[in-house]
Design a protein that fits this description.
Number of strands: 11
CATH topology of the largest domain: Rossmann fold
Bound molecules: S-adenosylmethionine
Strand order of the largest sheet: 3-2-1-4-5-11-10
Distance between the termini: 34 Å
Order of helices and strands: HHHEHEHEEHEHEEEEHEE
Helix content: 25-40%
Number of domains: 2
Largest sheet: 7 strands, mixed
Shape: globular
Amino acid sequence: MKWFENWFDSKYYQILYKNRNQEEAKLLIDNLINKFKPNKYSCFLDLCCGNGRHATYLNKQGFKVDGVDLSDKSLNIARKNKNQNLNFYCEDMREYVKNNKYDFILNLFTSFGYFETKQDNLRVIKNSCKSLKINGYFIIDFFNSEIIKKNIIEKEIKIINDIIFKINKSYDKEFIYKQIEINDKGSKYTFTEKVRLLNKSSFIDLSKGLNLRLEETFGDYYLNPFNELNSDRLIIVFKKINNYE
Ligand SMILES: C[S@@+](CC[C@H](N)C(=O)[O-])C[C@H]1O[C@@H](n2cnc3c(N)ncnc32)[C@H](O)[C@@H]1O
């Protein structure tokens, strides 16, 4: 199994990242709505929606939303809020395509760069481009590679709900690694996150030759401008400019 197939589907992922909550989702979604002003018929895809924190809030604001994720455990949490305008599908982002369906595709909180090959990352961008309507937006919220390397905390211990998480982070030229050793009342597990160190030019490179135009880059959930030297996030916004292959 690949790391992203079992780690996100484990109950420990939800526990370790429980501060990535509804409140944080609301902040980003409110700011995106304010900036891009979707109309009431706009259709959204939350690609890699996890437990649906962004999708659910967007739907509560009146929009039609599909959520896609590989983790059934996360989707089961998301599906508690399912309704006729909020649907969830268990699919791999490398495979999911719905031609010209969406006005907005969101890929939020570092849900990109998990694969070994450039071709697989490219497939996600190509599928998203096909799935967008013309003038639709593809918004990717990724880490700022420079800052993540600069501020790396190599060793850290967190205790949450009496579970001990020992976290070791490192990086090489291509990836950042987060090894998570868990001790849950004597039962031990190890997971490793491995995410490609993509930067703004890597995303531009991935979009080359596609019908996508780089529109904006933001550096945080308040949508301040991106600055490689000090922004926490790299939020990259592409617009689909036409439908030609
Ligand atoms: C860091 S989490 C972010 C989840 C959500 N966007 C959020 O902000 O809470 C990454 C998500 O990507 C999903 N994922 C990982 N690989 C995937 C794949 N190949 N296809 C679809 N989803 C995938 C995981 O299951 C996980 O829910």
